[in-house]
Design a protein that fits this description.
The protein has about 250 residues and is mainly β. The chain has helices spanning about 1-15, 35-40, 80-85, and strands spanning about 25, 45, 60, 70-75, 100-110, 115, 120-125, 135-145, 150-155, 160, 170, 175, 190-200, 210-215, 230, 240-250. Strands 6-7-8-5-12 form a five-stranded mixed sheet, with no helix packed on it. Strands 4-14-16-15 form a four-stranded antiparallel sheet. The protein is globular and about 45 Å long.
């Protein structure tokens, strides 16, 4: 549609939000005046298509289009994938991988994403699919120890630097530049990041994250089978379907 391009250019020109300085995540920090100013500049727009590779500024929120059904689609399951590809399960480990756990998650920006990389297995889902912007992929690695008890996704009004503490760690850090991968990169909306919580006691006492699931839905999802659904829509502000990252524990 011809008016789509014109609308996009006008919206971008009107809204070009300043990129805020990168800083590490402070879990105890209160919203700053700068953050409140950024929130006040958010512009909600009817959904419009954005070609892959085209980008729009942060703060432009495309509304969800109208869906005429209520459905959930599994885009990827590490459980199913590894059953079908046993040689790719827990790369670099010994046989008998049913007890292996998620050890790390990395991010990749760009369409040239190989199936495996540096001992990691690709989740073959572009997390910006249908939203334009950059190609965004996640990779996971497993071992027989595991370190995370849960995963989480959250939004931010500024670019963040990766962090690690005694209880949490940034996940989805980019292979190539060691920056924390924004799962909404180039598609407007807020910055979206993922993180993991560490076990606080002996590694064999708490349940640990063992598998990852990615689903899309035509409405909000709060539960899906025996998976833990991270309640953050990975398409927030980018239009399109709801995209959720889920995980399983053992």
């Amino acid at each position: 549609m011809q008016h789509t391009k014109a609308y996009l250019l006008a919206a971008v020109a009107a809204l070009q939000l300043s990129v805020l300085p990168s800083c590490s995540k402070d879990e105890n920090a209160q919203p700053s005046m700068l953050q409140e100013q950024a929130e006040s500049k958010v512009q909600s727009a009817p959904f419009f298509e954005l070609a892959k590779g085209d980008t729009i500024a942060k703060g432009i929120y495309r509304e969800k289009p109208e869906f005429y059904d209520d459905s959930v689609t599994v885009l990827f399951s590490s459980e199913d994938y590894e059953k079908r590809n046993p040689r790719l399960k827990a790369i670099g480990t010994s046989e008998g991988t049913s007890g292996y756990f998620i050890d790390d998650i990395k991010g990749h920006v760009g369409g040239n994403a190989p199936d495996t990389r540096d001992g990691y297995t690709k989740i073959p889902v572009d997390l910006n699919e249908g939203a334009g912007g950059q190609y965004i992929y996640l990779y996971y690695r497993k071992n027989n120890i595991g370190r995370f008890t849960s995963l989480n996704a959250f939004t931010s009004w500024r670019p963040e630097l990766p962090f690690a503490s005694s209880s949490k760690r940034a996940l989805g850090v980019n292979f190539d530049n060691s920056l924390w991968t924004d799962l909404n990169r180039g598609a407007g909306g807020p910055f979206i990041y993922i993180e993991g919580s560490y076990a606080s006691g002996p590694t064999d006492s708490p349940l640990r994250v063992s598998d990852i699931l990615v689903i899309s839905s035509t409405s909000k999802v709060t539960a899906y089978g025996d998976w833990h659904v991270i309640p953050q829509d990975l398409n927030e502000g980018a239009g399109g379907k709801w995209i959720y990252l889920c995980y399983k524990q053992r």
